[in-house]
Amino acid sequence: MFKESPIIRRISRQIMVGNVPIGGNAPIAVQSMTNTLTTDVEATVKQIKSLEAVGADIVRVSVPTMDAAEAFKLIKQQVKVPLVADIHFDYRIALKVAEYGVDCLRINPGNIGREDRIKAVVSAARDKNIPIRIGVNGGSLEKDIQEKYTEPTAEALLESAMRHVDILDRLNFHDFKVSVKASDVFLAVGAYRLLAKQIDNPLHLGITEAGGLRSGSVKSSVGLGLLLSEGIGDTLRVSLAADPVEEIKVGFDILKSLKLRSRGINFIACPSCSRQEFDVISTVNELEQRVEDILTPMDVSIIGCIVNGPGEATVSDLGLTGSSKKSGFYLDGIRQRERFDNNHLVDQLEQRIRAKAKLLDAKNKIDIKEV
Ligand code: SF4
């Protein structure tokens, strides 16, 4: 059993997005993007706060117009989490949000146009310590690169990214991270592998337009899992056609499964099986929802019978092993005399999980945001 991740991370230079370090040995940051109209300040602030509540480290907001930039100013004043402004072409918008306290600009220098405009954006970013994210996407490669490669390839994505990187390098600006996203897992993984060898800037991972909640989560887990297991990746977004809150939850689940970040409860539970002494599936599903607010890292095993119950319980913070009518309970791997009534398992487990979280928090003086 691995208590810590055996993954050796790629060494990258560190940048700061607001107060969140990205790269170096910083925890891999999880981010999402709002899907409200940015000009609807109230709705956007509400969504950002719901993302903050589930632990988002960074939130990206689309700023396509000057009206949206004005709305961004008001939004920024009302939230704590660092904000990235997504700007595609208009350098004036970049300058405006820089003035309004943006924490990171997502803009490709090669798309800005004239040299003096690129310099103006880079100079504002430098003056205000604002990093830039270069974001290349397999679906929107430059025309000449598309013609050269005839279809999106890892090399094509790399070439596109390096054009933007070279512009920033030439301007002696190194405070940037890069993404080379694609909706195809092999394409994205190939591009990130090439990029990781080419530059030492932090990499923002993503399988773009991955799909709906289930299919997109699986695709992202496979793609990001491959990269993360090779040590590649400093921040990530799981792109789902779903509530952005789900993107944060899935992002943390991916990192949790690789032991790259520990945050909240790690449940170990039986699949469907006829030997279960209680309904494991409904118990775990209800419990997961009830303790979603707990950020303390903890392993909880909910196992339906004695075949694997004691084995899992002895390596968990809390463990339940199914038995007829009353199930066995383990704390810190030790079997307790107390047994839990199978008719009230969720209530009893929730109570114990909350008590244990309090104890662990007090003991470790955990600053959850830093875990
Ligand atoms: S531990 Fe028991 S209930 Fe769970 S999957 Fe195995 S045999 Fe089934």
Automatic annotation (TrEMBL):
Pfam (any one): GcpE
Alphabetical list of NCBIfam families matching this protein: ispG_gcpE, PRK00366.1
Function: Converts 2C-methyl-D-erythritol 2,4-cyclodiphosphate (ME-2,4cPP) into 1-hydroxy-2-methyl-2-(E)-butenyl 4-diphosphate.
IspG TIM-barrel domain sequence ranges: 12-251
Protein family: Belongs to the IspG family.
Manner of cofactor binding, per the entry note: Binds 1 [4Fe-4S] cluster.
Protein name: 4-hydroxy-3-methylbut-2-en-1-yl diphosphate synthase (flavodoxin)
Cofactor(s) required for function per UniProt: [4Fe-4S] cluster
Enzyme class label: oxidoreductase
InterPro entries recorded: Dihydropteroate_synth-like_sf, IspG_bac, IspG_bac-typ, IspG_C, IspG_TIM, NO2/SO3_Rdtase_4Fe4S_sf
Pathway assigned in UniProt: Isoprenoid biosynthesis; isopentenyl diphosphate biosynthesis via DXP pathway; isopentenyl diphosphate from 1-deoxy-D-xylulose 5-phosphate: step 5/6
Catalytic activity of the protein: (2E)-4-hydroxy-3-methylbut-2-enyl diphosphate + oxidized [flavodoxin] + H2O + 2 H(+) = 2-C-methyl-D-erythritol 2,4-cyclic diphosphate + reduced [flavodoxin]
Enzyme Commission no: 1.17.7.3
Domain IspG C-terminal: 266-354
UniProt organism field: Thalassotalea profundi
Listed SUPFAM superfamilies: Dihydropteroate synthetase-like (SSF51717), Nitrite and sulphite reductase 4Fe-4S domain-like (SSF56014)
Alphabetically ordered keywords of this record: 4Fe-4S, Iron, Iron-sulfur, Isoprene biosynthesis, Metal-binding, Oxidoreductase
